[in-house]
Design brief:
Shape: elongated
Structural class: alpha+beta
Radius of gyration: 21 Å
Number of strands: 12
Order of helices and strands: EEEEHEHEEHHHEEEHEHE
Protein name: GNAT family N-acetyltransferase
Helix content: 25-40%
Length: 303
């Protein structure tokens, strides 16, 4: 078989990205924008877009994404390859110097769809062959005006907290006992719980939405119950974070926080709201279902 040529694209040949056609709708990552380079008004940088060519034909492609001010990729946002070119896809990931999480989006119930399952598992296998591993599977939700807008339960009061040190302390408490796989991975790494809480806070600051939107929740006796972060990510309005401190758990406050976060964004004009939680986080998944957020997609996160 002809040797592969693996390289980054340039501004002059960014059009090669579209030479590979993929009809499976599997392979795009968490952001999944229409591919267009920055020079054409898009959000992708040619030097962060890599292709594998065989006899001059694109047989695999990968595009890493970040917000305009980021200096390193935050996501592997596209990864796919031609039929029978799984190894070319894996080799493309191995040779590229870029590293970021890959969140593979698939339809709900994807394992019951033979063609979709085959396409998804091929990408997962190729990413694994390149050294990645599955961290967690997640549900991705999308609330729209066609969905019910739940009433506020009225059990908690909410107010903004301008002090990052206070927010950081609440995040530490929320993460000290958590079902979230990303948080648990961060806690297991260098810096432990403190580093995991700081990483979450850094994400909040990365969102291009107002800092004053972040709110703490309080019980009737004035104790902190948790935090919710209504936000905009680069795709639009989203449930940035929902967290209940350990001593306030067992009362279903995750639902109250989610309702407040949803209504907060709707009251500021949101016509769609994205959200996500791990499949294994059954309390939060139940809260999304109860609050009228349908599952729009599933996600397989590889790191």
């Amino acid at each position: 078989m002809t040797d592969l040529v693996i390289r980054a694209l340039t501004t002059s040949d960014a059009h090669l990205f579209h030479a590979l056609q993929d009809a499976s709708l599997v392979g795009r990552g968490a952001f999944g924008h229409r591919y267009a380079p920055v020079a054409e008004g898009g959000e992708y940088r040619p030097d962060w877009t890599w292709v594998a060519l065989r006899d001059g034909t694109v047989v695999a492609r990968a595009a890493w994404w970040a917000a305009p001010d980021d200096t390193a990729p935050v996501a592997l946002d596209w990864f796919d390859f031609a039929d029978g070119e799984e190894e070319a896809g894996a080799e493309l990931l191995r040779r590229s110097p870029l590293r970021a999480e890959f969140s593979l989006l698939v339809p709900p119930g994807w394992r019951e769809m033979p063609e979709v399952r085959a396409a998804a598992e091929a990408r997962i296998d190729a990413a694994r062959a390149a050294g990645m591993e599955v961290l967690v599977e997640r549900y991705r939700y999308e609330w729209t005006p066609d969905c019910p807008l739940p009433e506020r339960p009225g059990r908690l009061t909410f107010r903004p907290e301008p002090d990052d040190a206070v927010i950081l302390d609440v995040l530490r408490r929320c993460h000290s006992v958590t079902l979230d796989a990303h948080a648990r991975r961060a806690i297991a790494g260098p810096g432990g719980l403190d580093a995991a809480a700081q990483a979450e806070l850094d994400i909040f600051h990365w969102f291009p939405s107002p800092r004053e939107w972040w709110q703490l929740a309080f019980t009737p006796d004035g104790e902190v119950a948790g935090i919710h972060v209504p936000a905009h990510n680069p795709n639009g309005p989203c449930i940035g974070f929902i967290g209940v401190v350990p001593e306030a758990r067992g009362h279903g406050y995750g639902y109250d926080l989610l309702v407040e976060c949803t209504r907060f964004l709707v009251e500021r004009g949101a016509e769609s709201i994205a959200g996500a939680t791990d499949r294994g986080n059954t309390p939060m998944a139940a809260a999304f279902a109860r609050a009228g957020h349908p599952v729009a997609q599933e996600r397989i996160d590889l790191v």
